[in-house]
Design a protein that fits this description.
Elements: H1 4-19, H2 28-31, H3 38-64, H4 70-103
Helix pairs in contact: 1-4, 3-4
Length: 106
């Protein structure tokens, strides 16, 4: 179950991507002249999800060793779940768009 903290983190990540110029904004990516492609943005999102997964794994190992708080583990796992859900939603939209394009007549 997603918590308000994990949702806020997901929204902050989306805002960071939008402000970097990846979504056509006037952030730092657009100011440097380097345009971020969809592939770069997707790779960045997947890397972020992987890092979130690593963080939750580390928290889980720490709580198993008695070195961490269970709340931290639940928070890390929830953040990872929200991130994975977002990646899956984007994947589904891309597949739906591809299928729609394939239905078009030339």
């Amino acid at each position: 179950m997603a918590t308000p903290l994990s949702a806020a983190s997901a929204y902050a990540n989306i805002a960071r991507i939008a402000n970097s110029g990846a979504l056509g904004g006037s952030g730092a990516g657009a100011a440097t002249g380097h345009e971020q492609t969809f592939t770069d943005m997707l790779k960045s999102a997947i890397d972020s999800v992987q890092e979130s997964g690593r963080k939750s794994d580390a928290q889980t190992r720490a709580v198993a060793n008695g070195n961490a708080n269970m709340v931290d583990v639940v928070t890390a796992v929830s953040e990872t779940e929200v991130a994975i859900d977002a990646v899956v939603a984007v994947r589904d939209k891309v597949i739906a768009a591809y299928e729609e394009i394939m239905k078009m007549t030339i």
